[in-house]
Write a structure and sequence with these properties.
By secondary structure, the protein is mostly helical. The chain has 2 helices and no strands.
């Protein structure tokens, strides 16, 4: 039993519980944290890059209907890259 004068040892204080983790500070908050997120990040980045190049080619050739579809798909793929990069896995 502890008396009024005896305090238990504190480590870090209350604010330490609310501090961001190491992978949520700086540029690392935009990079994946787990192997599954890295896999999705790399795959969607590759496919999104390929569709972006295809959309540039369609615009240069004057195929406007194809270029609109390709730009939309490239935007969707790059949004998936963002989601895979910023979503954190739960333990």
């Amino acid at each position: 039993m502890t008396g009024r004068g005896a305090k238990k040892k504190r480590t870090g204080g209350r604010r330490a519980n609310y501090a961001p983790t190491v992978d949520q500070v700086g540029y690392r908050k935009y990079l994946p944290s787990g192997w599954a997120n890295w896999l999705g990040f790399c795959l969607f980045l590759f496919v999104g890059g390929a569709i972006t190049i295809a959309s540039i080619t369609y615009i240069a050739d004057g195929l406007w209907a194809d270029s609109v579809a390709a730009v939309g798909m490239a935007a969707a793929m790059m949004y998936m890259v963002y989601l895979f990069g910023t979503t954190r896995l739960r333990d």
